[in-house]
């Protein structure tokens, strides 16, 4: 059996077949039982260009019937576990396959989840890139588009949704006419089946889809609840039904007004900008449990992770992130769904475009007008990191099979692709870019394309630009450009000690490439700005637009202008490049970056510092000093989130052990001071409270208790002492004394936290911190679990239990996660998170050897999603012998030359992370 469909196999089928319709019947009426499988029946109508043997994809426990053109085939002879092989005749063909697929717990195929909050069962499908075959027989590749007609038999209490509206429903066993049990517009079909049918299953019938790929078909079923609305296209006047759905236990937290508001704003924006009406009928959005992705763009039924339903208070960065995800998936209705790539090589044709368009709509159509700020710091950091790996690849990648495709949903395809599209818009102009997009939709609607198709459309509307040359330089190459600016100033002025006010007498911009040195040169369209003081703020003094494509160029427009405090390349963030600040700019940034008034410029300067510390050009200690200074001063939620992510990475991987206690004590002290002065109920207050708890969990590695470490631990204790929903006013001396923390009594009075309301998220963060310290045990975890019986509470409890710093706990956690099929995707990750949590003693060292011994089995015995979580999550970067782990990784790769390419890629990337950590630690000096 092979589940790894290759590009060559897919192309052969494309040349042979043209698919018309799938009629798919699913019977999940046993979903609430302990049944492992369900019934799937598919009828495929298609044409063949010649008589030949071919195969259809279906991963199932069994296939009971195969019929081609009226001829029954023996399932035992034609089904190998993943494919049914059969003969076709030239012309029209009809194939019927009946199978029993398995309910999934990995988030691939048809996932089944039982909500611990109320015991209710939920189903949802997830098919990208080729997991529709886990639910029904189909030619599971993007270029064999067809119409799909679904019917689903489910328990009567289930809400059932699919890509198109429900046209009718029929109780199983009823003599009712199937054509008229409910209105064809689907309005009543969304309601419960009713008490008369409570003991019966109901079959739901759905309208045929438009022509689409198999990977964006979708089914959800379960007692989902939600809200509905209607959007009217301002251009066409057509109405579109909207729905927002989630689990019953989360529906009270479903802020449907905000979600629907973002949805309507996005539909207004895209319908106008693309000049192509939303084509898919209704627009349901459903938030589902244990989801592997942020979301999936199934037309008419977009699925999201229900972690985007906020049960506890979150910062505005999370609302911005959710809005961005909503708009990203909406952009796919055109880029990806209406026009689809032929094969996964051109995945960028949907993901890069959706990432860029989502960001654009966020900034121009919603309240998040500075949405590009978070993109500049966080999203592009993902791209830069991915582009530095040995496994980096061009945006238009070579994808030989679907396992490679699965791993190509990465920082290159998403964030780099979106960044490069920003550069393309700067290169050709916004008007031309959208004109080319509109032509692309009209020319290729409901069909499949390659890179050349989009470039041809763009070249038609921008004939004065070298589109092909631009594409060769940006889309067909790997690595990231690095830009630096060398300035010379008026000698007399600088000698007087006023360098920031000096006039620029010379300016040279230089580009090199992270992968290939200065040999790879790209065309850059960017802005260069000088920033200087205006009172206490740092603001732009001057900016110039500049185009260049050589190794270096003179920026004559800067000559005679004031140098300022910071010289900032890629001002306004139109380019994709890692910017190197000059020495003077770096010094100003380290001491005063928080004074840069413009959030986007501030994010870009932080991005330059992030890249410098990652490359060893800026000492880790100096970066953490700059970060500590920013605490309490940074007001942008997205920047706060991005900076803390990098700071925690520094602590976890880049700070040498001899410097760890000094580093974490300094950060904890700064975070506690900032928390004490944060505005009541603000984003900063919530962010800082969680940061203190996160840092406190890491103090498990500390031997000595500094005052800030003791205060952080006391804060975690206080959080658990305050009931849910009440205000955490301060750390009480009684709590400090009871837990033996060496904190002066007057310290409590210095840390008022007015407006900080306790909730489940804060409490679980505090509990995990205390568990890592050995200050809480299984009894404490059980008590907290009793207070929070939700699915997220269950996962946090799994993490906390596995984080207990006891050898027997680590052994049981290891045995549980490595057993194939024992855990669902999210429970597996939760336990792994606890297994690798900080501990005072190296109690997981014994599992290094076992990890490498089990690697091949991780991949062979699990689905690719579960295998990926095991390979990445358990990689022993936590070992005391980091160099030994690098050597073991190299040895394993050498000893397994025939290992799957996707597995080797994951290992190479983790090995690169660890080698970077070793390098950065070796460059550090001791600090006392």
UniProtKB/TrEMBL annotation:
- In this chain the Aminopeptidase N-like N-terminal domain maps to 90-173
Which residue ranges does the record assign to the Peptidase M1 membrane alanine aminopeptidase domain? 262-474
Instruction: State a single Pfam family of this protein.
Output: Peptidase_M1_N
This protein's superkingdom?
Bacteria
Query: For the ERAP1-like C-terminal domain, which residue ranges apply?
Result: 568-704, 760-915
For region Disordered, the annotated ranges are 162-198
Q: Does the keyword Protease apply?
A: yes
InterPro entries reported in the protein's UniProt record: Aminopeptidase_N-like_N (IPR045357), Aminopeptidase_N-like_N_sf (IPR042097), ERAP1-like_C_dom (IPR024571), Pept_M1_aminopeptidase (IPR012778), Peptidase_M1_aminopeptidases (IPR050344), Peptidase_M1_dom (IPR014782), Peptidase_M4/M1_CTD_sf (IPR027268)
Molecular function per GO: aminopeptidase activity
Q: Which Gene3D superfamilies match?
A: Neutral Protease Domain 2, tricorn interacting facor f3 domain
Keyword Protease annotated? yes
Q: Where is the composition biased (Basic and acidic residues)?
A: 187-198
Q: Which UniProt keywords apply?
A: Aminopeptidase, Hydrolase, Protease
Family listed: Belongs to the peptidase M1 family.
In its UniProt entry, what is this protein called?
Answer: Aminopeptidase N
Q: Which organism is it from?
A: Brevibacterium metallidurans
Q: What is the lineage of its organism?
A: Bacteria, Bacillati, Actinomycetota, Actinomycetes, Micrococcales
């Amino acid at each position: 059996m092979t589940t790894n469909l290759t590009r060559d196999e897919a192309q052969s089928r494309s040349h042979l077949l043209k698919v018309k319709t799938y009629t798919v019947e699913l019977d999940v009426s046993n979903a609430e039982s302990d049944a492992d499988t369900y019934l799937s029946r598919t009828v495929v109508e298609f044409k063949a260009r010649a008589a030949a043997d071919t195969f259809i994809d279906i991963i199932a426990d069994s296939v009971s019937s195969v019929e081609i053109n009226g001829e029954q085939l023996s399932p035992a002879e034609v089904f190998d576990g993943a494919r049914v092989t059969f003969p076709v005749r030239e012309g029209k063909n009809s194939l019927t396959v009946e199978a029993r697929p398995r309910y999934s717990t990995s988030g691939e195929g048809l996932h089944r989840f039982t909500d611990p909050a109320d015991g209710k069962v939920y189903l949802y499908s997830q098919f990208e890139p080729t997991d529709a075959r886990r639910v029904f027989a189909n030619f599971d590749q993007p270029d064999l588009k067809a119409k799909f007609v679904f019917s689903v038999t489910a328990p009567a209490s289930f809400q059932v949704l699919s890509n198109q509206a429900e046209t009718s429903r029929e109780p199983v066993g009823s003599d009712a006419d199937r054509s008229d049990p409910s209105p064809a517009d689907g309005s009543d079909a969304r309601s419960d089946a009713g008490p008369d049918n409570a003991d019966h299953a109901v079959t739901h019938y759905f309208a045929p889809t438009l022509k689409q790929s198999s990977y964006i078909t979708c089914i959800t079923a379960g007692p989902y609840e939600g809200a509905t609305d209607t959007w009217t296209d301002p251009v066409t006047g057509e109405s579109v039904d909207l729905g927002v759905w989630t689990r019953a236990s989360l529906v009270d937290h479903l802020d449907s007004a905000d979600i629907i508001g973002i949805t309507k704003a996005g539909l207004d924006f895209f319908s106008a900008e693309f000049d192509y009406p939303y084509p898919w009928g209704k627009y349901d959005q459903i938030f589902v449990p244990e989801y592997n992705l942020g979301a999936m763009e199934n037309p008419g039924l977009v699925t999201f992770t229900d972690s985007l339903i906020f049960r506890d208070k979150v910062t505005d960065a999370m609302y911005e992130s959710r809005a961005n995800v909503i708009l990203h998936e909406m952009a796919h209705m055109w880029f990806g769904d209406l026009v689809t790539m032929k094969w996964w090589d051109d995945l960028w044709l949907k993901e890069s475009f959706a990432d860029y368009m989502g960001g654009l709509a966020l900034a121009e159509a919603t309240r998040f007008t500075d949405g590009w700020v978070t993109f500049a710091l966080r999203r592009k950091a993902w791209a830069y990191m991915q582009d530095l790996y040995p496994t980096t690849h061009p945006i238009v990648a070579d994808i030989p099979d679907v396992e490679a495709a699965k791993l190509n949903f990465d920082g290159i395809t998403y964030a780099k692709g979106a960044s490069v599209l920003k550069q393309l818009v700067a290169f050709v102009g916004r008007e031309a870019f959208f004109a080319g997009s509109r032509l692309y939709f009209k020319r290729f609607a409901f069909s499949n394309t390659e890179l050349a198709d989009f470039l041809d459309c763009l070249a038609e509307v921008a004939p004065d630009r070298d589109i092909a040359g631009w594409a060769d330089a940006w889309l067909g190459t790997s690595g990231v450009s690095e830009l630096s600016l060398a300035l010379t100033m008026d000698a007399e002025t600088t000698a007087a000690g006023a360098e920031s006010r000096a006039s620029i007498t010379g300016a040279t911009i230089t580009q090199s490439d992270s992968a290939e040195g200065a040999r790879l040169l790209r065309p850059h369209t960017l802005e260069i700005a000088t920033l200087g003081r205006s009172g206490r703020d740092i603001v732009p003094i001057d900016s110039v637009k500049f185009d260049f494509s050589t190794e270096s160029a003179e920026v004559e427009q800067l000559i005679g202008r004031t140098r300022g405090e910071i010289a900032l390349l890629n001002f306004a963030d139109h380019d994709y490049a890692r910017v190197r600040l000059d020495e003077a700019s770096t010094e100003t940034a380290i001491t005063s970056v928080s004074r840069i008034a413009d959030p986007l410029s501030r994010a870009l300067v932080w991005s330059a510092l992030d890249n410098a510390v990652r490359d060893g050009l800026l000492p880790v200690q100096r970066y953490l000093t700059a970060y500590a200074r920013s605490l309490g001063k940074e007001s942008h939620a997205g920047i706060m989130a991005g900076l803390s992510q990098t700071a925690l990475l520094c602590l976890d991987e880049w700070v040498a052990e001899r410097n760890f206690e000094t580093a974490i004590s300094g950060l904890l002290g700064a975070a506690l001071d900032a928390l004490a002065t944060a505005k009541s109920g603000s984003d900063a207050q919530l962010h800082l409270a969680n940061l203190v708890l996160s840092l406190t969990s890491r103090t498990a590695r500390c031997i000595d208790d500094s005052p800030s470490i003791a205060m952080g631990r006391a804060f975690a204790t206080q959080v658990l002492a305050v009931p849910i929903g009440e205000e955490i006013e301060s750390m009480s001396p009684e709590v400090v004394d009871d837990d033996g923390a060496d904190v002066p009594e007057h310290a409590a009075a210095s840390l008022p936290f007015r407006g900080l309301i306790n909730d489940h998220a804060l409490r679980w963060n505090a509990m995990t911190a205390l568990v890592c310290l050995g200050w809480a045990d299984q009894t404490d975890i059980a008590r907290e679990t009793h207070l929070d019986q939700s699915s997220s509470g269950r996962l946090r409890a799994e993490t906390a239990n596995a984080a207990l710093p006891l050898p027997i706990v680590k052994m049981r956690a290891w045995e549980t996660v490595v057993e194939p099929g024992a855990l669902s995707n999210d429970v597996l990750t939760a336990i792994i998170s606890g297994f690798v949590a900080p501990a005072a003693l190296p109690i997981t060292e014994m599992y290094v050897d076992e990890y490498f011994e089990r690697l091949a089995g991780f991949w062979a015995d699990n689905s690719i999603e579960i295998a990926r979580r095991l390979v990445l999550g358990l990689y022993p970067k936590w070992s005391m012998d980091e160099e030994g782990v690098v050597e073991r990784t190299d040895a394993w790769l050498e000893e397994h030359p025939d290992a799957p390419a996707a597995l080797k890629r994951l290992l190479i990337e983790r090995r690169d992370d660890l080698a970077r950590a070793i390098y950065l630690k070796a460059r550090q000096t001791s600090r006392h």
